[in-house]
Fold this protein.
Amino acid sequence: MAFIRYNHNHYRPVSFSSVVDKFFNESYFAAENTNNFSPRVDVIETEENFEIQLAIPGVDKEQIKINLDKGKLTISGERKMEEKTEKKHFRSIETRYGTFSRSFHLPENINEEKIEANHADGILTVILPKEEVKASVKQIAIK
């Protein structure tokens, strides 16, 4: 008996934004043969901060780099495939391996000195605290 991968949504994304995202982020011609992947990201905003969550199971925190340069946050790393495959015969491999890099342009109200990151259960969470917004309207007295 052979195992055959079946994914009823593989070629039929569920929304228009999924179609656009797939078009710009994945190669239709070489998606299965590339040495990189793009982890899924959730961005959450609260009154106090922004939170970026990357789903990167199987990636050790030592293999992740987080850089901040001129308001651009870049998260990169690598998921390596296990080299030992003795007595293992893969019938299907859907997990993506290789390098990844995701970049985010941060709003001006982020306190860059207090950015924190933690990695647990395959999820990298980056907390971006907001600074208090200073009043942009100021009354100027006439002398």
